[in-house]
Amino acid sequence: MTRREEREHIFKLLFLTEFYKEEELEQQEMMYYEGISDAKQEDLTYIRKKYEKIKENLEQIDGQINEAAKGWRTDRMGKVELTLLRLAVYEMKYDDDIPQGVAINEAVELAKIFGGDTSSAFINGVLAKLV
């Protein structure tokens, strides 16, 4: 599995957190992991670890997003954009293995797939302020 595919799975898992209460989320996560049939164990481990680390740092990540997104607060952002920003900010600020430029580019590319017409420009603009 490529890093982009792993990143897509992490995005989808993070997206789930916007729609389920904590007690329901664990079951949704289990079902999601079971549905990833093409993943090797090492891929699943990578996805799980990164997903959990993002959730652990969510408050700090959201704070950084709020600072960078002038005029926007995380509670007013579209769920796709917010989820992609969270993933990218984690990669930029907490994951030393991923260069900032790669994190930004990947978030923009995923926004073109999962977001609306202006999502990629919005994400690029917010993330550029965090470099």
TrEMBL record:
Q: What keywords appear on the UniProt entry?
A: RNA-binding, Transcription, Transcription antitermination, Transcription regulation
User: What are the residue boundaries of the NusB/RsmB/TIM44 domain, all occurrences included?
Assistant: 5-130
Q: Does the keyword RNA-binding apply?
A: yes
Q: Is Transport among this UniProt entry's keywords?
A: no
> Which Gene3D superfamilies is this protein grouped with?
NusB-like
Pfam families, sorted: NusB (PF01029)
SUPFAM superfamilies membership: NusB-like (SSF48013)
Report the protein's function.
Answer: Involved in transcription antitermination. Required for transcription of ribosomal RNA (rRNA) genes. Binds specifically to the boxA antiterminator sequence of the ribosomal RNA (rrn) operons.
Please give the HAMAP family that the UniProt record associates with this protein: NusB
Task: Give the record's family classification.
Answer: Belongs to the NusB family.
Query: What name is this protein filed under?
Result: Transcription antitermination protein NusB
The record lists the organism as Hominisplanchenecus faecis
